[in-house]
Amino acid sequence: MAAASKTADKTSRARLSAVIKSARDTMRKDAGLNGDLDRLPQLSWLLFLRAFDTLEGNRELMEDDYRPAIEEPYRWRDWASDPNLYGDTLRDFVNGELLPYLKGNLEDKAPRDVVLVDLFKDIHNRMLSGYLLGDLVRQLNEINFASSDDIHTMAYLYESILREVRDAAGDSGEFYTPRPVIRFAVKQSFLSLGESILDPACGTGGFLVESLEELGDKADSTAARMQLQRDLRGIEKKPLPYLLCLMNLILHGIDSPTIVRNNALVQMTGESGPASKVKVVLTNPPFGGEEEASILSHFAKGVQTRETAWLFLVAILDKLEPRGRCAIVLPNGVLFGEGAGTRIKERLMRECDLHTIVRLPQGVFAPYTQIPANLLFFEKTGPTKETWFYEIVPPEGRKGYSKTKPMRDEEFDECIAWWGGKERKGREENDRAWRVPIAEIVESGFNLDLSNPASGDDLAHRPPGDLISELIATEREILGLLEELAIDFQEAK
User: Fold this and answer.
1) What is the distance, to the nearest Å, from the Cα of residue 94 to the centroid of all Cα atoms in its chain?
2) Fewer CB atoms inside 10 Å of the end CB: C or N, the chain?
3) Cis peptide upstream of residue 73 (ω within 30 degrees of 0)
4) Are residues 41 and 243 in contact, defined by beta-carbon separation less than 8 angstroms?
């Protein structure tokens, strides 16, 4: 039975939650799946095929020149309800026919379908039991994607799945951006229809989905909606976030996401010409990591550093078109970094107006890390004349955040009111906001790790955890400088 016509009833949120819970309970019984970092990818690629089949069914009805992206018998509707495919037979079909087909037999398709090849090239069926796999497929077949309302219901639930992926990924050193930070960065970037928007470290697609939500109501024609979908672009290196990002965007109505699976530092530095430039970059690049020597070779010697966040900043400067703008999450270590870091900040402030640095509260990425972070907003409109700083503080009576008490949207309200709109007019200094002329920044050696002068920096009254986190970040920065000196010494020999 065709997936799109399975039932005319909408899938309620409660019903959908029950189906997904049942599906996850089934996966817990399979010996091939160990933990959520195994189970959630398995669930996601099957859900992808389920939702994609509905989208294909809609295309078949609407397009006169329709050509299927997936041929029979590999469409979900062909095999997911086939009573002859069960147990070992189903497992062997998925492992030996379906996945090999999806990984390599779509290369002669239209560009919108090539994403499937890219998506499935690293996908594996990790379930060992064909019987449990059959149970899982039947459970997912109960989800109705027959209307846009159902897609939005699934997208809502999918957010809870993504949160659990973020929780699991935090244990392996990846820290996903809290949704209030994403919303604030997108809102204060004042996006317009027709602007190309890139997240070069898109993860599961948070910045792109929020940009879609911000602009979706303004796209009031089919042509405008299609253009908006083309303007949202992402790059993601790792297979799991890449899969989840595609699924996330598809569930939010983008049937052919423009997401590239690659190391963004290679992808961005390998592109050239005006057509490769973008108007807006919104991102939270990996920080605290180190890149291998082959990646450093893509950058000029004066700015070569193993700190990933620094390299992203350089690549973004090259990627932005004139008058383009960026909102980027960066750790404190980048603000006070020296050596290559100083040269990168000097270039940033020579080419761009670094107009605002929002100092985020301690523990915004809790419970995964206590590394202090910041949001930098800049425009490629010429040199910086002054930089405004704004300090966000936790609510009264709170020292920080936790998994059960995360940051909330309203904690940015005062900053939004102070911002001064798109033109940033009428800003005034207060106990949370202060400005620093470029002359002072230059004199300090481009140190941007500046504390609020209204609060001082009383070490005796600061939490020990804050001091330890900053000490660790400082030690890492020193280690990075020593590594750069070692590289320079080797090159000089």
Assistant:
1) 30
2) C
3) yes
4) yes
Are the C-beta atoms of 418 and 390 separated by less than 8 Å? Answer: yes
Q: Which residues contact 414 (CB under 8 A, 6 or more apart)?
A: 432
Encode pLDDT of 398-433 as tens digits: 777 776 778 899 999 999 999 999 999 999 999 999
Q: 252: closest CA among 154, 388, 399, 353?
A: 154
Distance CA 111, CA 61 (A): 20
**Mean pLDDT of all residues in the chain?**
83
Query: Which residues does 345 contact at the CB level (< 8 Å), separation at least 6?
Result: 337, 446, 448
Give the 3-state secondary structure of residue 318: helix
pLDDT in tens, 95-151: 999 999 988 755 555 555 566 777 788 889 999 999 999 999 999 988 876 655 555
Distance separating alpha carbons of residues 294 and 351, to the nearest angstrom: 27
Return the number of other C-beta atoms located less than 10 Å from residue 104's C-beta: 11
Phi, psi at 377, each rounded to 5° = -120, 125
Cα 342 from Cα 325, distance rounded (Å): 21
**Other C-beta atoms lying within 10 Å of the C-beta of residue 483:** 15
Asked whether the CA dihedral 363, 364, 366, 369 is positive or negative, the reply is: negative
Indicate whether this model's pTM tops 0.85. Answer: no
What span, in angstroms and rounded, lies between the C-alpha atoms of 175 and 365?
7
Residue closest to 392 by CA, chosen among 433, 429, 422: 433
